[in-house]
Structures
1.
Amino acid sequence: MRSRITVPPRESYEPAPPVPHTAVARSYGGPGIPIVEIQMSSWPSSTGRGRVTTAGIPRAVLDQVAGIVFGVSFAGCDRMVSARLVNTDKFARRYGLALAVAASAVLARQRVPSEFIFLGELDLARRVRDVPMRVLENLLRSICEREIETPITIVAPPASAELIEGTEGVEVVGAATWAEVVVAVWPHLRKG
């Protein structure tokens, strides 16, 4: 006798798990590590309680960026958030702008252009802080030695941007504030 396979009614199937939105923002790592990536993913929590996991990015830094950019902490959100630093084990403050862009992109479901490199730190007043001269010198050396593929667009504070301007294969965007960074990366979000 043959056994019959019973298929449950369609209504009783489990819904497909939510697809995470992922974003990657890049920064300059330094000599020997030309590109550092900040990767982030976010998806709705099935329980209604969010959770944050990080690898290579201090949790306090991630929460501070969320507070600066969104006015909230990831700890209190109802989403699952995963953040990862790639190509190095140590987070540096100069990756802060890339972290803010990745966090914004993943939560706003926006794409970060892959040719963009973000330099600088976002302070508590949402201003982009200058990059140390030695970092800029090393960046220019890495570009000239072709450790970094061009063409690229570098988003940096205005004083730093001036020093990079004129480099072959590099478009430079000077951004003094978080609002200017947002417009540079996502011009379609410009108000008015």
2.
Amino acid sequence: MRRHSVRLGICLVALAALSHPADQPIKEVGVLLGLRGPSGLRTLWIQSRGPTLVLSRELPSVVVPHRSRLCRLLLTTANTDAGFSHKATFTHSGISVDCGKGRPKGRPDDSEGCEGSTSIKLLFVSSTHVSLDVNVDSACYGRTSSYDTFMVVPIRHFVDRWLFRPFSLGLPLDSLGQTRGALKDPAVQACKSSDEELRGMLLTLLELDSCSEILPTQWGIRRSPGRWTIVGRTVGTRTIQIDYDAPGRLPSGIYSWAQEALSPTAVLEQVKDAQDFVTSPGGAFALLLRPDVIQAARVQDGLLVLGDVLGNKHPEEAIVSIEWATGSNVPRWAVLIDELAATAGKRARPTPKPEARTDGR
């Protein structure tokens, strides 16, 4: 009986090999790729079609999934001297996440007696968190101040309402540090060190007289080639600052996708001018950001097989959001993207395909 079972098993395996060739169909994937550039924010909706990737839609602003919907992250600027206080001339930057429940609510703070500006630079967006670099220049009652601060804030704070000058709302500036537990503050560690040369170098860089003047490290998230990195900012009381990448991966509660299937070194060896890249879940596809274009590729045996150029890009454009859909979520997201394009009051459109490269790269 056992011999017959073995023979039957061998036959079934042979039949399966005949009916399913070695080149298995690639699992359907789609990605919302959010970009920040000199002209603002935009999102590309890119889907797999058989063995390649195609650009299906381009949307203004950054689009991310939030709960069961797709939402647009919006940045805006408002001036207070016209409508709120004749004594205030403060230009506020605001942020909102529009999930289609009506016009976002909120207004700038009334900064009576002050003048200046705040600006927000978007560094990272996921379905749960936003990382910002906020710059403040102000003069209130004869006193001037200027500083930058990193923030990692839960996205729910911005859903369907404008928040202007979010740093003033008591939101946690160190939410990343709280999530990760005790992130070691390198400036504090250096000051506790018995190495006098190291302490002296730190104080010289920050233009400080003593370690007591060093402010707590701020934590943020930003893009490095092929990965998201935790970034720390050490600030002295005289507004000199040092930014650096901290070791470790992002907490799963902030960003859940696994590390890229290729290393930055491996990509740069094959594509010398690659600025950044992302790989799909499962590692079958890759997207390359080159100085002037975004290009699709297949990943085979750890090597890139370059495909079509999907669209143009500005040399200074950088990734701020990567959200993958797989399987049945791909057509579902495609429908939601069409709805979002319609409610945004502007029909999303594919980016005109640039001319194909003729240099074989």
3.
Amino acid sequence: MNNDRVRKLLEQDLMSIDLDLRKSGDQLTIVLIGGASIVLAYNSSIKTTEDIDVLESRPVRILERHGISMYPDHYLNLLEDYHERIIDVPFIGMTNLTVKSLGTIDVVISKIGAGRSKDIADCKQMAQEGILIEAIFRPYFNRWLERFEDKKPLENLYNIIFHE
């Protein structure tokens, strides 16, 4: 699936949630994580996502009804100050749904933590597109690495992203 099609499908899903929120009179803020974040917030050309994952949010039912997966922040093993790097993802025409995204640093840390080949490929693509800058990312990665006893597998993934 090409990137424009992925972007359009993700945007349609979010617009549908906004419409349901308007009908119910509710307001909601979500924080995108993963592939949807990379496509919508950072305009990357990755093509490996068709779903929307968010940090745990309320009201849950409306998100579940739309097939949105929710994850608590501790599940993603994020740095404790990730809130400071959350960014707005503006959408024209949405009134009841506010969309935000993890910062680049935190999206990549969560993907390295997951360690799946498609996640590492996404990170590599972000680096090749100039969305992920090694000199900026490295200090955060080093701080995150301190949590782990066996750092070698994570260092190997880092090297795949930036040096292969």
